[in-house]
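Support reply, case 0932

Customer input (verbatim):
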Amino acid sequence: MKQWTTQQLEAIEYHEESLLVSAAAGSGKTAVLVERIVEMVQGPQAVDIDRLLVVTFTRAAAAEMRDRISLRLAGALDERPSDETLTRQMALINRASIMTIDSFCKKVMDENFHLVDLDPDYQLLDENEASMLMAETMDDVLATAFEEGDPGFLHLANTFGGSWDDGHLVEMVLRLYRFSRSGADPRGWIAGLETSYPLSGASLKETPFFAPLKEEVLFLLEEAQTLARYLMEELAQDPALQDTAYGPFFADETAQIEGLLPEALEAKEYCQLQRLAQKVVFQRLPTVRGVDSLRISILKEIRAEYKKLLCDTLQEWLAVSESDLLALMRKMRQPVAALSALTLRFYDALQEKKRRKNRADFADLEHFCLSILRGPDGQPTEVARGYQTYFAEILIDEYQDSNDVQEAILTAVSKNQENLFMVGDVKQSIYRFRRANPELFLEKYQRFLPVGAPGTTGGRKIQLYRNFRSRPEVLWAVNELFFAIMSQKAGELDYTTEEALIYGASYDAAHSLPIEVDLLDVQSRIGGESDEEKDLDDLEGVELEALHVANRISDWMRQGTMTVEDHGAKRPLAYRDIVILLRATSSYAAIFEAALKQQNIPVFSDTGTGYFESLEIRTVMSVLRVIDNPRQDIPLLAVLRSPFGGFSEDELVSVRKSKRGVLLLDALKECSQSGDSPARERAAEFLERLEHWRSSALHMPLDQFIWSLLQETAYYEYAGAMPGGAQRQANLRSLFQRAGAFEKTSFKGLYHFIRYIDAMREGSKDYGPARTMGEAEDVVRIMSIHKSKGLEFPVVFVSQMNKQFNRRDQYGDLVLHAKQGLGLRHEDAGRGTKEDTLPRRLLVSRINQEAISEEMRILYVAMTRAKEQLVLTGHVQNVEKALERWRTRANLLGAMGLSPYYVLHQNSPLEWLMPVVLHQVAEPMPQQDLEEGIWTATGGEGVPLLLKVWTRADLLARQEALTERSLTPFWQGEELEDPNLLDLLGYRYPFEQATKIPSKVSVSYVKKQQMEALGSAFFAAGDPSQEEMPELFLEEPREPSVPLPEFLKEDRRLSGAERGTALHTAMLHLDPLSSGPEAVQEQIHELIAREILSQEEGASLNPQAIWGFLCSPLGRRFAAAHRSGTLYREEVFYRALAAKDLLPQWQAKDPMMLNGIIDAFFEEDGQWILLDYKTDAVGPGEAAVLKQRYAVQIRLYCEALTALTGKKVREAYLYALSLQEAIPMEL
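Our regenerated output:
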């Protein structure tokens, strides 16, 4: 008999009111749900199991639930074989309503088809068929709208249509349509969007936007007040400093800030908030000497934070007058109304098209079901009341993932919401992209009282927070991190001791496994990297992190000392015990997979991508495209060169020579009739086969045709003989199955199948390779955090903690929110400018808050998958600077935690994690040890934490050692009897170097290779002192252990490469004849408005520095060339050169393509003047460093320009923005 906790027993037995069970990770919620159902269907008060509605999130969960209930009932029946009630329940179990919400909706429709406008034999649309239908419908709707010529629509199309087509407008309509369908009344919601925008005469307080704007102001003021109070606490720690001028100065400043919040709370008008902002005045900080300089630095940092909030961020919200805000919103009412009308028109046209085709998607099922259960007045229908009478209780699993439509459906069939049992964990609500609404759970969680508490709130709640999955060290880490970061404002829930996970497992207490945080410093240690090249290390950073994870796994398995607990007994660690979790697998899972395979670690990565890019699928799709339309040169060429055509390169040349200047098909026909062509017979045979395939495709079902094609050509066997043959054959079988699924859609024929596949690819609906591996295989798994939900593993790596959050939904012209409606940028098509609006800014802020809360929950899911060992990994480009930044925040953590404002404005989980980690470690970091490879810090007493900082050099050295060790057993084997075999085994291809030479390289790549070659040669000559080293190879000076200056403490800093790109983009578009820095700034604002530059990129530019160039002698020549039409900017070139001419160490004479982009060049007296802008941060007098750093690059540019134009380069310059200096280069 299972021993239940008191809370679990309450969740099983309580039936007086609706019950919400908040069940944390590993708390046994599924077991509780099963036991509650089993208890309800037996005994004297038994309810037949088919009178329970059990709703699960997935079909797999429903099947598992049914199996678990069956097993429990069967076990009870074995104990009491004469129990008639149990016998009856076993007979009814297959009729029980244990299903997903989609299945329940289908059940309601099947039982009430006379109430919906759909035939009973309807078919469900899959995503791809739905996409094709939407595309067709959208084309029809737009064509009709243009023909009618409504002024509102034409203005909308002119404003938001693309330059060449209406793709942008189409995307906006589809976004709005898809978003609306998660609501209970999509048409009503869309139709009401324009009402949020004021008509003439309205004031801001009468709009829906004043309240959220006031909330933003209050949020900022609360953060500033918290920081100011902390500053006073920090000041009080040093009485000597408090007795200086700082004491009264900061006391007055804090009092001023504290006085702002009560006034803001009382504000009823926008103008009152504006006056409040105008009161913020900061005096100059007094000078204080002879006291603790470190504490002064801390105070200055805190002050700088709240000063930025009040002087910058607050002013940005309140800078525009109320009349201007209202005028802009009035302008937006027309495009919002036109967009809503167009979307409603599309909505109705699509529904009609689906009705005619007798098709429906899952969202349709939900809305049809709701229309059956709820009348126009919002009250339950007679059908709904019938279900209310029939279902004794409605049990909802994973309630945190419900959406508004599902909530409305289940509410309609409940007995006035009094017989609901809802179980879930809002901290694991990670499906907002599917329109899950965690607020449904949160509203009840905050409203319901605990079981046994006095009062009436419409329901009760029980908290199951005892975790039976994980070791106490894992729970400690989860609790400590989420105590610090999760709150009502940043996380949508206050994570307190009440929410904390409680240890409930029974692991061996003597065997402690600390939580490991592995931080990789991947910054290159070769000095002198340019800004343009610093981000070349980013991809290598992921590769090094993957290498590190592979090394850790390899070490564990080789040493054989690590064990895991399995059903109470210890056993050696197996590969299947390990999982690597990534936020998203599409970009980097392949890199981790390759790193593990390099160490001979068996691995499976369910990436969800790569299927359509596999060779065999691309080949077969090319064949199908040619069969459908052979007059396509690229697919036809691919087919001819493939095993389906069998043409050699010489034969293809012969085909093309047969008839030039025509389509390849026509050349192929000509070749088949040419008696002297060596490819005549092959061409004739292929054309005959092609005609046979085209005829067969017309008369056979598509899936059968594809299979016959694979069998007839033996391509299926051919694919099986290739490397990875089993996987390739599985992919081909999957294509055959997809063709079978397509045959069941409303579209028919090869043409539509190709469109069907294209819709998958264009809609980012790629698939992973077909599965060839079972769940029990002994392999390390790489998976996304979302796919890991509900699973558990003894060892968990949560990697790429530094990966930036995806804020894509916040960047577009259109932003949407279920409650706050629609936000749209104002665009002036005539001027080509865009202007943000208050509704859009408020929605972006709200969406960011919800998105960051979801990211927090995703991290919670990842960390709680671990049973025994949790390893968190991430990488940074400069660990010293990063640690300095995190230490500053860690100092604040002790008194006030990580503030909600800080949490919401970070860009990766690493920025949350590291201040918490540094707050826990026992000793400061010894900076000098970083160069030696690994630095380790442990947590304080009773803190199960191990922080390790790894450098690039150490990781590469470990990799080299592993490679050597893997070869050792071979060389220690028995001596070969035949000495010639050793020579054969040791054979080296004489032209191996040529195989490592790429066919195309960039100028930056060549420059970097030459710099590294020069650096290696220099250091190989001995062990020179630092004074003897060329300045080019010196490392940047180490940052002193003092607080970072203000300009380094931004929330989101662009990388060097991004800043360089921003400058080059600006210089391409800016007018060289600008009249001053103000004119430059104006043009930068215009580039931002046109979305040529982002806000961050625009902010990174220095108009004064750009103007400094334009008014310099070189800049005036630059402007004169622009005036005369001889200025060329950002020109791309390609030049073929012998490999040895680019890099001497390559030696080969084989040609390779050199590619580069010249920033600018202009003509004077028939010769070129070449210019390259540089954003490198160098100090005065360091022009020589830049000259040496870029000598190779400029030489290659000059040679290419001369060779390609026939004109000599007379002068070449670097222009250093940081120095405001033109540096002449030697030619």
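We compared this against your earlier run and they match. Two observations from our side: The chain has six domains: 6-120+360-464, 127-182+325-357, 204-319, 515-607+780-813+850-897+906-960, 611-763, 1008-1018+1112-1225. The mean pLDDT is 86. Please reopen the case if you see a mismatch on your end.
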